Amino acid sequence: MSVVKINVLTVPAEARERLEDRFANRAGAVESSDGFEWFELLRPVEGIDSYLVYTRWRSEEDFQAWQDGQDFARGHSGGGSGMAPAATGSHVWTFEVVTQAAAKS
Ligand code: HEM
After folding, report:
1. Which strands, in side-by-side order, build the sheet including 51-57?
2. Which CATH number applies to 3-96?
3. DSSP E strands: which ranges in 43-103?
4. What letter does residue 78 receive in the DSSP assignment?
5. Ligand 1 and 27: CB distance under 6 A
């Protein structure tokens, strides 16, 4: 089963818009990375103040290869926007997918 890697971002209230703008203008490189399955930027509403960057991968090795490779560097270069970093802290949570379901179409 897949692995889920969630980057937990601490973002001051005044920097939220800048963070979302950066993601709106993101490189779009992760989509082409081997073993990539899913990505979402989650805006906190209730229960936690952190933004979550949810990513899902075929395997731990695929995630590590992305993180060590050029696509990660490209995805975190700010796209030459010159915008100051928005997050003041981050850490990664790791999960294994145990069970999953998708809507019947
Ligand atoms: C040092 C910690 C990190 C910070 C502060 C950070 C912050 C950001 C920001 C601001 C962006 C938007 C693009 C930009 O402005 O450069 C971005 C892109 C992204 N981040 Fe992170 N990030 C970090 C590490 C990670 C990690 C460990 C993961 C995976 C769990 C991750 C997943 C992603 C993904 C999937 C994108 C989109 C890349 C693309 O479009 O190709 N980030 N990150």
Report:
1. 36-42, 51-57, 3-10, 89-96
2. 3.30.70.100
3. 51-57, 89-96
4. G
5. yes
